[in-house]
């Protein structure tokens, strides 16, 4: 997902529960583009992985309700360095994850 976001020049990725799937949207030049849909069963494992990478308490990230949780991670993607700002909003339908991508200076 992140490699595709970088290749499409997206600055934000949004993963959220949608009926029977996980919807993936990229913000490209200010416009939201829905790209992928994954099986709903992948929402919590993907959220957990992103939370661990960003130093967010995974117990709180997947619990229904609560305040938004934030964290950051530096990561190499497609041979470039990025700083990812992650926000996870727990909800009864499943967590919504927003990932802001910013290229880090060399």
As laid out across the biggest beta sheet, the strand order is 3-2-1-6-5-4
* Cα-based radius of gyration, to the nearest Å: 13 Å
What class would the helix/strand composition place it in?
alpha+beta
Helix content: 10-25%
Overall mean pLDDT score? 91
Distance between the termini: 23 Å
Kindly state the number of beta strands.
6
User: How large a portion of the residues is in β-strands, by DSSP E?
Assistant: over 45%
Per DSSP, the total helix count is 3
- The shape, in one word, is globular
Low-confidence stretches: none
**What does the main sheet amount to?**
6 strands, antiparallel
Q: Give helix and strand order, one letter per element, not per position.
A: HEEEHHEEE
Structure description:
The protein has 3 helices and 6 strands. The chain is α+β, with helices and mostly antiparallel strands. A 6-stranded antiparallel beta sheet has the order 3-2-1-6-5-4. The longest helix has 11 residues, at 43-53. The chain is globular and about 40 Å long. The relative contact order is 0.23.
Defining traits:
alpha+beta, 50% strand, six-stranded antiparallel β-sheet, 106 residues
Q: What's a quick, concise take on this entry?
A:
With 106 residues, the protein is of the alpha+beta class. 20% of the residues lie in helices and 50% in strands.
């Amino acid at each position: 997902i992140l490699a595709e976001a970088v290749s499409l020049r997206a600055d934000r990725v949004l993963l959220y529960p949608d009926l029977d799937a996980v919807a993936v949207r990229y913000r490209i030049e200010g416009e939201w583009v829905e790209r992928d849909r994954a099986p709903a069963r992948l929402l919590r494992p993907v959220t957990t992985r992103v939370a661990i990478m960003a130093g967010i308490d995974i117990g709180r990230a997947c619990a229904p309700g609560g305040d938004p949780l934030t964290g950051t991670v530096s990561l190499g993607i497609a041979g470039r360095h990025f700083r990812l700002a992650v926000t996870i909003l727990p909800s009864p339908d499943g967590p919504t994850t927003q990932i802001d991508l910013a290229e880090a200076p060399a």
